[in-house]
Automatic annotation (TrEMBL):
UniProt keyword list: FAD, Flavoprotein, NAD, Oxidoreductase
Record-listed E.C. numbers: 1.6.5.9
Taxonomy of the source species: Archaea, Thermoproteota, Thermoprotei, Sulfolobales, Sulfolobaceae
Annotated GO MF terms: NADH dehydrogenase (quinone) (non-electrogenic) activity
Signal peptide span: none
Domain (FAD/NAD(P)-binding): residue spans on this chain: 2-266
Originating species: Metallosphaera hakonensis JCM 8857 = DSM 7519
Name of this chain's protein: NADH:ubiquinone reductase (non-electrogenic)
Pfam family, one: Pyr_redox_2
Family: Belongs to the NADH dehydrogenase family.
Catalytic activity: a quinone + NADH + H(+) = a quinol + NAD(+)
Length: 327
């Protein structure tokens, strides 16, 4: 069985761990720990969020797929497949807001932000999810005047109210300007316009607007916001020999974008591509984040903070590193 996997993120390497003979193609030379991009901004050390790929991962950019002939076209030539798993991760859509918005999607973005910070006094972080909350706390610790702007009525809207309230209080106590139920309309020069007011900032960073990669649409696959649509077995609704996993896919019911879900879906996609018949179901065991030195989050449906939350975070990072090193 010639199984080709497009993308070497959490989902792609999970598939490779399940089936070591899979062919993985990625445009980068390293595995990206996306949840550590804030650490790179803090320290300027890219190795905190990157691990070199094993030699078996092919470095190439995907140009297209001939689904009829079962051939992937890449910058390193054509690669045929029997079964294909698309696990291309996510992209950020910054076009929803007019003006100059700095994205935070990959390692290069984190290093770009780090380089600009020496000339920046005030920063607006757009989006109050896990990335936005952690980033706002880090920037404030670095001495910046920070505005954290969230459209919904609370931060971390997908987490428990305890986690949301803890994050808001912690950030406000640090001096972060938390703006809830606020929509950003435009960034014009140093002026950020919202539906309520105007604020002056030196840089605006997007910590929201995540969608599936443009390539999914370019390939002509049925999608929701760029995320390829798959059935309950992660098989593409368009082609029976193509599967989706990770952030670039979703079913008719919403599938969250997270490393845990990506790992689970990568394994299930590989299993089913090899002839299995496993219905995909995901489980978010823990969602943990850090503001300054304090760790907190939700574990098994309950709010946790302190040493237990920190342990859960470190275990998650350790497992991700081991996933790469075991290949």
């Amino acid at each position: 069985m010639r199984l080709v996997v497009l993308g070497g993120g959490f989902a792609g390497l999970s598939a490779l761990n399940f089936y070591k003979d899979a062919i993985v193609i990625d445009s980068k030379e390293y595995f990206l720990l996306t949840h550590r991009l804030t650490d790179v901004i803090e320290t300027g050390n890219p190795s905190l969020a990157s691990i070199p790929y094993p030699k078996g991962v092919i470095k190439a950019r995907v140009l297209g797929v001939d689904f009829k002939s079962k051939v992937v076209r890449t910058t390193q030539g054509h690669i045929g497949y029997d079964k294909l798993i698309i696990s291309l991760g996510y992209e950020q859509d910054t076009t929803r807001v007019k003006g100059n918005i700095q994205k935070l999607e990959n390692l290069e973005d984190a290093l770009t932000i780090r380089a600009k910070l020496s000339q920046v006094r005030s920063v607006a972080v757009l989006g109050g999810g896990t990335l936005g909350v952690e980033l706002a706390g880090s920037l404030r610790e670095m001495g910046k005047n920070v505005y954290l702007i969230e459209f919904q009525d609370r931060l971390l809207s997908f987490m428990s109210k305890e986690a949301s309230q803890f994050a808001e209080k912690k950030l406000r106590d640090m001096g972060v300007n938390v703006m809830l139920k606020t929509k950003v309309e435009e960034v014009k020069g140093e002026i950020l316009k919202t539906d309520k007011d105007e604020i002056k900032v030196d840089m605006s960073i997007a910590a929201a607007g995540f969608r599936g990669p443009r390539l999914v649409e370019d390939l002509g696959l049925t999608n929701k916001n760029g995320r390829m649509l798959v059935d309950d077995y992660l098989r593409s609704v368009d082609f029976e020999d193509v599967y989706g996993s990770g952030d670039c896919m979703t079913t008719k019911t919403f599938v969250p974008m997270s490393a845990q879900v990506a790992v689970q879906s990568g394994k299930t996609a590989a299993e089913n591509a090899l002839g299995g018949d496993t219905r995909f179901s995901y489980k978010q065991v823990a969602v943990v984040l850090r503001i300054g030195p304090e760790y907190f989050g939700d574990m098994m449906g309950k709010f946790v903070k302190g040493s237990m939350a920190e342990l859960a975070k470190r275990v998650g990072i350790y497992r991700a590193i081991r996933m790469v090193e075991s290949l």
